[in-house]
Amino acid sequence: MTAVPLVETKPRSKRRPQKIALETVLFVVAIVLAIIWLIPFLFMIFTALKSNAELFSGKAYAPPIVYVWENFTRAWEIGKFQIYGVNSLLIAFVKVPLGIFLASMTAFAFSRLRFPYQRVLLLLVVMGTMIPVQVALGPVFHIILDLGLLNTYGGLLLVYIAFGFPYQVYLMYGFFRAIPFELDEAAMIDGCSRFGLYWRIILPLSLPILATLFILDFVGTWNEFSIALVILQDSRMWTIPLGLMGFSGYYSMDYPGLNAGIIITILPVVVVYIIFQRYFIAGLTAGAVKG
Fold first, then answer.
1. Which pLDDT does position 289 carry in this prediction?
2. What is residue 77's predicted lDDT score, i.e. its pLDDT?
3. Is 118 in contact with 110 (CB distance < 8 Å)?
4. CA-to-CA distance for 111 and 263, rounded, in angstroms?
């Protein structure tokens, strides 16, 4: 009869119940916060689907009894969102890729190249993130006026790119620095140029941060109000926020139509987020896993 060797078993962790309890509490807190965050949007959807009579009948917070889908049609036609939406899409889909392209080249130069006064120039660029838009509106208006770009999309794009440039460079600089420099040496040995290194190596590896910046910049450009209000004085050139302002001013008592208009204006942002969601989450967590 052979003796069976004893196998040592590790004692069960005493912290296991505490860990489960902590995860449960965090999960419950996250659900509660999500519900609190979603309540205003749920109320906005309920309001957009009601008639004015039902809304003021004392059941403002209840789901609609009769769904009035015509509110969206009325808001679309009266608010001229088809015009303002096209204006906003045109500006966003020119400004966002162009701004990210220029900022990515600048971040590549600061992170992978060496040139005189590099740190000083990087510091000056980063300091641009500290300038509030509201403080600069006066000087920006005079500069655009002197350049003859007032009430033009070119002037608006110039200002948008200038204000988005510093924080985009700052975020991409940190991401580019985390990419191993051995890739640069290997690419150079294979005959790759500096631009080839940027275009074929660095950018493909930076899809998470590029997608993150695309979403953030698209949302910021789509919702921007103060700069567009100062530069665009012709109502036919207005963007979505300015159009929504005009719609709410003329139809301030049409709460169902107003909420329907608000929902219409946020749909493109939701679509863009859904498309880039996977890269967006990866970009947000990239800094936590890179050494």
1. 45
2. 85
3. yes
4. 41
Please state the three-class secondary structure of 198-224 as a single string. Answer: HHHHHHHHCHHHHHHHHHHHHHHHHHC
Q: Is the pLDDT of residue 110 over 90?
A: yes
Instruction: Assign 226 a pLDDT band (cuts: 50, 70, 90).
Output: very high
Q: Which amino acid is at 260?
A: A
**Contact (Cβ atoms closer than 8 angstroms) between residue 222 and residue 268:** yes
Statement: the pTM of the whole predicted model exceeds 0.85: no
CA distance 284 to 291: 15
Q: 85 in helix, strand or coil? A: helix
- Identify the pLDDT of residue 93: 93
User: Which has the closest alpha carbon to 232: 252, 224, 264, 96?
Assistant: 224
The answer to whether the beta carbons of residues 168 and 176 sit under 8 Å apart is no
| Alpha carbon distance 95, 86 (integer Å) | 14
Which one, of 71, 68, 42, 50, lies nearest residue 264 by Cα?
71
